[in-house]
Design a protein that fits this description.
Elements: E1 9-14, H1 20-32, E2 36-41, H2 43-53, H3 64-68, E3 77-80, E4 98-104, H4 106-113, H5 120-130, E5 135-139, H6 146-158, E6 161-162, H7 176-190
Parallel strand pairs: 1-2, 1-4, 2-3, 4-5, 5-6
Bound molecules: flavin mononucleotide.
Length: 209
Amino acid sequence: MLMKQHSSRILFGITGASGAIYARVLLDELVCHGHEIHLVASRNSLVVMCAELDVSFADGRFDASILLGRKPPAGQITVYDDTDMAAPLASGTFHSDGMVICPCSMKTLGLLAGGIGQTLICRAADVCLKEKRRLVIVPRETPLNLIHLRNMTTLCETGAIILPAMPGFYHHPKMLDDIAAHLVMKICGALGLPRSDRHSWTGTAVETV
Ligand SMILES: Cc1cc2nc3c(=O)[nH]c(=O)nc-3n(C[C@H](O)[C@H](O)[C@H](O)COP(=O)(O)O)c2cc1C
């Protein structure tokens, strides 16, 4: 259901790290707030989505309605192939209000840190960095080796926001979606988008007068 109209144009990359539920809940949040979404799912992300969300994609082609679990409003989500280097988001002339890669695999993180725009996701993220636009990277792996840590440092130094898939638990989540929603609230904040404060920490005050 559409809740509110905003004009933000958000680029959204989904890669093959564990945590497909984060992608689903984030997509739902962006759709509900009426954002214009330009979505790229890597080939490997489809494998993880199928394994973790019990979905399947006909002919192995990504379908945003299947990830979302419903049909989004017409025209709100544009999907591109990760090999399509002629897509608009491969160019700095295509304005965006920011990009998020959620979840982000260590492979994609490595390509990004090396400045290798080999996939559309990597190229679009590289464009965000060079154009000084917001880039929020949601890496997921554990444990992390020194290469992973150095890649995150490089990207942080270059202007990306590193927002690891580390949900909090102080809002007493009851369901998996509640856990994901906490992280999604953080991602929306990092993207500079209005967000629901449903999961915000309200402190330990004894009394409000
Ligand atoms: C079920 C499953 C879970 C995975 N989880 C992770 C993960 O949490 N982090 C990670 O870096 N790679 C993970 N991988 C491996 C990536 O999918 C693999 O490195 C892939 O090449 C990433 O490609 P992409 O970045 O183009 O999507 C996982 C693979 C599978 C099949």
